[in-house]
Fold:
Amino acid sequence: NAGVTQTPKFQVLKTGQSMTLQCAQDMNHEYMSWYRQDPGMGLRLIHYSVGAGITDQGEVPNGYNVSRSTTEDFPLRLLSAAPSQTSVYFCASSYQGESDTQYFGPGTRLTVL
Amino acid sequence: DQQVKQNSPSLSVQEGRISILNCDYTNSMFDYFLWYKKYPAEGPTFLISISSIKDKNEDGRFTVFLNKSAKHLSLHIVPSQPGDSAVYFCAASVRGTYKYIFGTGTRLKVLA
Structure:
């Protein structure tokens, strides 16, 4: 069991570039989510999904797109990167989402110049 | 507006003593609360949770207390160990919304 995996670990982008952060889990979890962690801000929910084909917005969804075509994968797309999106991004999954433990990936550190 | 607040950015405790980490919330609709521990360069890991129907939940050295009237929860670690040194986040949710709101974290340092 690899748990929750994220790629890449580090990424540097120029303003205006687009990219996709990958997240995969092998625990057959229905619920998956993306957070960003900024200094002094804690973790903030970007988007989440309660199952394949279903996604919804979190606290800070602007500038990000998600899709969930399979149970295992939940990629996060940055459409046109901005310096304000410099952050550490964490993907998480859980079996039921509502009350069960969320398992987090190791994170992707993104810098936008 | 921060709905979940951890007002102490850092805390230092001697090994073997009790560590008490605090968390306050403003949304009275929150009915499920969690604590996560985070080491540098790793993702957060789940520690302990509590539902609003309880006022205490215990798991080994970790106990979470919930005071609904004060909108306050605390995490007690007894005895504290050097391996407990990490950043601790509290989080809250309203069941059915699938949205978790995290506090800003408290960095705990346990001194040997």
Summary: Chain B has a mean pLDDT of 95. The CA atoms of residues 7 and 23 of chain B lie 7 Å apart. Chain B has no helices and eleven strands. The radius of gyration of chain B is 13 Å.
